[in-house]
Structures are given as C-alpha cells and as structure tokens.
Design a protein that fits this description.
With 313 residues, the protein is mainly alpha-helical. It has helices at 2-23, 26-51, 59-76, 81-103, 108-128, 130-133, 159-182, 184-194, 196-201, 206-221, 234-247, 253-270, 276-290, 294-311, and strands at residues 147-149, 152-154. The protein has a single domain (2-311), classed as ABC transporter involved in vitamin B12 uptake, BtuC, CATH 1.10.3470. Helix 2 packs across helix 11 and helix 7 (159-182) packs across helix 8. It is globular.
C-alpha cells in the first residue's frame, strides 16, 4: 500500500512539473528550473553527506568544472547540447577523481578542509585564467543550439523549451539517486556512515567506496550550463549543505524539498529587504534548529509517533 501511494505521489509531481510552462508565467518557470537544478546538485551531494557521512566544502569546483567543460566545448568544438552536457559531466568527474583521490585518505574535519582547499584552488584558476575562462565575466556567447537526434531537431532556445531539457535531466538525476540508494553499493555507503572501522573489518575497501561516491557526487554537480567563476567559490558549495539540512539528510526527497524551500524563501525575503542575507540566515537557523531531522525527516518522525500512539493500548 505504501509503495503504491509513493508511486502515485511521484507521478503526480511529474505531471505537475510537466504542466508548469503551460499554466505558469515565465518567472515561475524560471524559478522551477532553478529549483530543479539546485535539486540535482543537492541529490548528488546528499549521496556523499547524507548517505556516506562525508562533509565536503569543495563541491562548487565540480559544479564549475561541468559548466566550463560544457561551455568551452560548445564554443570551440560543437554546440550540440547533449554532447556538451556529457563533456561537462566527464570534466566534473575527472576533477572529482583527482580531488577525491587526495582527500578520501583523510576523514572528518581533515577531509572537509582538504576539499575546501582544493575547491579554492579551482576558483583561483578559473578567476585568473582569463584567456580561457573569461575571468570574472565568465564565458559569453554560449548559444542554446537545438538538440539533433538523427532527423529530429528539438529546439531549446526559448525558456519553455529549455525547461523540458532541465526537467529531463532532473528526472534522470532522481532516478539514478534512487537506484544508488537502494543498491548494495548504497547500503555499503550507509554502513560506512554508521561505522567505517567495522565496515573495513568486514573486508570492504572503505577508501575505494568513498572515492567512488565522491566522483559520482561530482558528476551530479557537473550537470550545469552557465559558466561563471563564482560557481567554484566555497560559498556555492555551502548551498547543497543548507538544502540537505533543510529538507533532511537521510531521505531521497529531503534534498528536493530543501531545494524548493531554499529558492522560495530566498526569493520572498529578497522582495522585502535589502539585507536579505541576514534575514535569510536567521530564517534558515530557526528552521534547521526547529526541525533537527530536516522538514521531511521531522514530518516522517511525527507520523511514526502518531501511528505508534494509535497502536498503543
């Protein structure tokens, strides 16, 4: 029964997302894309933090690697969007492999500080290699060329058309994240989070699994289109952390709900005050402290308690 309800809820969400460009204005469509793109980033990051227990402050570097990989490929090789996305994901994976290989040997705060250091190194390179990256202006002139699949030609130049490309990538990311969490690989990651020493004593190569999920998480971050140097900054790496804490660390839907809350609250607060960052920080602090398991985790816990109270004599 529970599985049927869950499937019906996912189908309802999918139908609602498909209808957004037809029933909402351009601004709501744009915000929906921002939520989905942040959701992709947060889903991959949550495999690392929520599932494996590794806190990274350098994921903005992989976000930027994917964006610049796609942008440079589109400008200098081919404007084909799908090929560009594949190149961007591959670039993010290579950077994540290099950073992860040097970082996963450490744990806890040392791992976090190493990822922060490598992330800021990437930010400095992107900022200073102006001839390649465009410096603080980023890459300019990346056109949204149509997707060509044999004789078919799918335009994505308009906002409503581009929306469905983002929606397709979002659906793919949710499916992959769900499969990873439910797989034996995902169960090993949960074991590493709970007790890495005991997991290693069971004969499982913990470092190899940490490196694998680190690269996978970096690939999620590489699904981006606009190339700006600020993407590589550590402040951008903080977004999926806040999103995971808002929605809930240990659930698939937590990062998705957190992405929606994060974007919606930021947009609403910005309309009322110039000091929106201060007000936004206060609101985030209240929500995170009030919902220790995130919004999704807290609601699930409340429902479990209610069911337990009903069953009690």
């Amino acid at each position: 029964m529970g599985k049927k309800v869950s499937t019906a809820a996912w189908l309802l969400v999918a139908v609602a997302l498909c209808l957004v460009p037809h029933v909402a204005d351009r601004f709501v469509t744009y915000l929906s894309m921002r939520v989905m793109m942040l959701g992709i980033f947060a889903l991959g990051y949550n495999l690392l933090l929520g599932r494996t227990g590794l806190l990274s402050f350098g994921h903005g570097a992989f976000y930027a690697a994917g964006a610049y990989g796609l942008g440079l490929f589109s400008l200098h090789v081919s404007p084909h969007p799908l090929l560009g996305i594949a190149v961007g994901v591959a670039a993010a994976a290579l950077v994540a492999l290099a950073v992860g290989f040097l970082s996963v040997r450490s744990s806890e705060v040392y791992f976090s500080m190493l990822t922060l250091a490598f992330g800021m190194m990437v930010f400095a390179l992107v900022w200073n290699l102006r001839e390649v990256t465009g410096g603080d202006d980023g890459l300019i002139g990346i056109a949204r060329a149509p997707i060509r699949l044999g004789p078919a030609r799918i335009p994505i130049a308009r906002e409503g058309q581009y929306y469905y490309l983002v929606l397709s990538l979002f659906g793919l990311a949710v499916w992959v994240a769900a499969r990873v969490r439910a797989s034996p690989f995902g169960l090993v990651l949960a074991g590493i989070r709970e007790n890495p020493t005991r997991t290693e004593f069971a004969g499982i190569p913990v470092r190899s699994y940490r490196l694998a999920v680190f690269v996978l998480s970096g690939m999620f971050a590489g699904l981006e289109s606009g190339a700006r140097p600020s993407m590589a900054h550590w402040t951008h790496s903080a977004e999926p952390i806040l999103v995971s804490l808002l929605g809930g660390l240990h659930t698939l839907t937590g990062p998705l709900v957190g992405s929606l809350l994060f974007v919606a609250m930021r947009e609403i607060i910005m309309r009322f005050t110039e000091n929106w960052m201060l007000a936004f920080g206060v609101v985030l602090r209240v929500i995170i402290l009030g919902f220790r398991g995130g919004v999704v985790g807290s609601l699930a816990e409340a429902m479990r308690r209610r069911q337990a109270a009903r069953r009690a004599p």
